[in-house]
Amino acid sequence: MACAWLPAGLNAQTMAPSGSTPASATSLPLLGDGSAMASAEERRLGDRIARELFRDPDYLDDPVLADYVQGVWQPLLRAARVRGDLTPELDERFAWHVMLGRDRTVNAFALPGGYLGVNLGLLAVVSSRDELASVLGHELSHVTQRHISRLIAKDTAQTPWLIGAMILGALAASKSPDAASALMVGGQAVAAQNQLNFSRDMEREADRIGLGVMTQAGFEAQGFVTMFDKLQQAARLNDSGSYPYLRSHPLTTERIADMQSRLPLGAPQAVATAPQMRHAMMATRAKVLANTGVDALRTWQAQVDDPGLRSAPAAQQAGALYGAALAALQLRDPTLARRNLARLQAITSVDAGSAEPVRWLGAEIDLTARDLTPAQLTDLATRLGLREATTTPVANMRRPELLLQAQVALQLNQNAALSSVTQNLQTWLTTQPQDALAWQALAGLYRAQNQSLRALRAEAEAQAARLDYTGAMDRLRAAQDLMRANPTGGSSADHIDASIIDTRQRQIEALLKQQAVNP
Ligand SMILES: [Zn+2]
How far is the CA of 95 from the centre of ligand 1 (A)? Predict the structure, then answer.
């Protein structure tokens, strides 16, 4: 568990770049324009780092929070395309993948190749979608402006492997101050982090373009100011230990003045807007999932048992009740979770934007309790949008709902439900083939329908989506063994499955070889 962000076998010594600059150096030598890393090369480096992060115990694909972040991230991407900041070439070549980390520290970071890291700690402190958009827009702009490729110039003596290790080391060092990993990586990682920091000009550019992107996407520019204000207060409290974002993004008065001058005239400055209910619930979800220790989970109930809560703003009540219900669920107390949920339903019934997260939380509680009758499960499936004849176009599908549908179908264990959800997931995966969790859910559904070959293939795809090609090969070989052991009667469906498995096996083998060539 310690050294969680570090790839196995690395230690502080191997992370020191060969012939490295002393720890006091503040920037990596920026070489001329012609030496910037090519986008294909940057993507390979990003994949290398992402592969380690996918394996990290702190990596979290929480469908509900991921959906919330995507609701901000996708409009930003679209806006960057419209503005021309994101070129078609880069759009196609990079991953544009947001990875959530369970870490409690306030941080978001751009990684090579279009990967973006967002800590739950950040989600827990932002007060609005606009504030989140300001941080994500800024990080997105670091990527679209090719700041990373300029930092990692081609002709440094460091191999991509070493650069990847340095970045992972810097991430480990930015973790919660109480984490053992921070001690273990020590000074070397800090040196690496200093080398990997963006220049002031890059920061200014990311601010300017990020602001343009977020306003084009329809977010309030005010979010940038309130976020700055929040970071500034944290800096004043000397709280940068739990705000690594501050260390990599120092708030100079110049930077703040620059941004304020860009805001529309007459925009009120740093006024905290009342958080909406949905946002309050998502921020609370991040807080609960960032700290799942029993003691921390128990504190949530005390808040909602306090009669004073009833006089708090509605959004605050909704956040507290959502948190208490989720915490009770984590503590495996569905009775208490349902009591909190009932209060939450009462207070959010007036707010249309709250319907989805409240419905999803209710489903999570029911599925964890495992006490629903078949009739109740069928009713739950209907509430989650599962109908017998699946006609939902993929654009209208909601990922958290799909994944919950899969769980309901497995508990119900009836053919009609299993096959409807299977179809839904297949449709979803045609446009989202990188969705490891959806592949995993599909594998479970195939198993429940005794389709072992397809289950193995889906498991292989789940591994491949996390860039673990060795794991994927393992599943595909198991599928081929199964085919040999059970030669089929030759139905066309079996032939199609067999040929897909053989094709994927060759493709993945090629990817594995590529990895071996570029260690
Ligand atoms: Zn920045």
Answer: 19
